[in-house]
Each structure stands twice: as C-alpha cells, then as structure tokens.
Specification:
The chain has 265 residues and is mainly α. It has helices at residues 8-15, 23-42, 54-62, 82-90, 95-106, 110-114, 147-154, 175-184, 193-205, 211-216, 222-232, 235-239, 260-264, and strands spanning 121-122, 127-130, 141-144, 245-247, 254-256. Helix content is 46%, strand content 6%. It is globular and about 55 Å long.
C-alpha cells in the first residue's frame, strides 16, 4: 500500500489474527509499523495521526474482551546441570559451539552474540561494547570480558568484520547453527534460555544487589536501578576482584569469581 493510504482499520486487520496467539510478535510488528508511519510523516509522505499508535488508539480495540496469551518462556538449562554441560560444550569443535560459549559467558542475547564485530571488542581492556543500534533497548551496552572469553576470542580466526562469520560472505553465523548445538548434546533447551540460567544462578548463588545481574543482562529497569545505575552500567562494580569461590554441584568443578560475569564463568 501507499503509506499515505494506510488507515487504522488496516492495522487492526493486520494485528488481530496474531494479537492473542502470538502477542510478542504482534507487538513488535505494531511497533515497527508505527515507526515506519512516523518516519513517513516526518518526510511529508502522509498527514494526520499515526494509525499504528497503541495508547488511546489500537488498545481500545485489541485489548477489549481479549485475554492475551501468556508469554512462553525459553527453555533453559537447570543451573545444577551446567557443570556437566559446559565441558561437553567446550569439546565441540564448531563455530556454533563457540558462539554458544561466548553468549553463555557474556550473558548476551543470541542475536547480539552472533552479530558481534571485532571493532566492538577491546581485548586489552577486556571489554565488549555493543552499540545502541544492536541492542534491544536501544542503549549501548558494555560487557566486561572474563579471561575465559578473551582466550576463546583469541583462538578464533579473523575472517572479516564478524567475530562469528557465516560461510556466506558478509553475513554472521545463522541462528540455526547456534540453536542446534544444545540439541546435539542431548539438551532440549534454547540458546536464549541460558540467560535465564544465568539469572537463576545469580539469584540463588550470589549476594550481588539485584541491579547488577539485571545490568549484566542489559535489562535495565529504571525503577530498580535508578538513573545513576542506568547511566554508569556499574562497570567498576562488575569488575571488582573477589577472593571467594563457590563449588558448583558436579564432579570437581570449581568456579573462581571476579566480576559477576567472572563468577558465572
């Protein structure tokens, strides 16, 4: 359709079939549509209100009488199973396995890990800076890198700008190549689910304040962390050396800790 011809009825027709059954997808479609229409208005390609706006517009139709389907959580590996899973993962000699190791150690989202560029990583400073345009929240995110991550990165060849390149030129590794790794190891879990494993571990096995793991996961909640925390990202706090260590359940796995990420390592 010509963007100037799009009306509210068209947006409702677009979203209604998936609003309750695939609500997360429907919400993203609505948001992207709203941004496109906003841009069209700025460029003078249409006039009037944005028909994809939710508040005071679509919510009057889509939320009325509907019970939005409950969000399905990503299947996650139980924390107690990590000591068995991790050495088996490290034995896998595939790029997909390397990506999974990377995202587990950094608590990153799969897309952020797969899309990682070499120019975002400072091995000397042991810091990975993910630009705002690649973050779900639209805010630059800094990840302190553990020695284990640095070792992993140094072992990888530099083929192009991507840390984990696809065989197809100019592309990062595919989601499928990463998601099939846990399945190959006999675990019916998702790559994204390891973020939940990390969060559960942080809650049950560490004494850090709530804002630290939330910032490690780049899930900044202004009510929880406050403006100062959100602005500073607690990098120094996440780098603090800690002498303590904890023994995870499993045969002889001793985990030493530095930052929260180092403790997760």
């Amino acid at each position: 359709m010509v963007v100037a011809d799009i009306e509210r009825a068209h947006i409702v027709k677009l979203l209604e079939p998936i609003w309750t059954t695939k609500h997360e997808t429907a919400s993203r479609v609505r948001l992207h549509t709203e941004r496109v229409v906003d841009l069209a208005g700025v460029k003078g390609l249409r006039n009037g209100d944005n028909p994809a706006r939710l508040k005071g517009n679509l919510d009057l139709t889509l939320s009325a009488g509907h019970k939005v389907a409950k969000r399905k959580h990503h299947k996650a590996l139980p924390v107690d199973d990590m000591p068995d899973f991790w050495p088996r993962l490290k034995d896998q000699d595939t790029l997909g396995a390397s990506v999974l190791q990377f995202l587990i150690l950094t608590a990153a989202r799969p897309g952020e890990a797969r899309d990682a560029r070499w120019n975002e990583i400072d091995l000397k400073a042991k810091l990975w800076t993910i630009p705002d345009d690649r973050m779900k929240g639209g805010k630059t995110h800094k990840v302190p890198l553990t020695n284990e991550v640095v070792k992993l990165l140094k072992s990888l060849p530099r083929m192009n700008e991507y840390v984990f390149p696809s065989p197809r030129a100019g592309k990062p590794i595919s989601d499928v190549a990463v998601s099939k790794v846990p399945k190959a190891l006999g675990r019916d879990v998702t790559a994204h689910g390891f973020r939940a494993t990390f969060r559960t571990w942080a809650q049950e096995h560490t004494s850090y304040a709530e804002e630290v793991p939330e910032l490690a996961l780049a899930r900044v909640n202004s009510d929880l962390t406050g403006t100062a925390y959100a602005r500073g990202e607690l990098i120094d706090k996440r780098r603090i050396q800690r002498a303590m260590c904890c023994r995870a359940r499993g045969p002889g796995l001793l985990m030493s800790h530095q930052t929260l990420h180092r403790r997760w390592q």
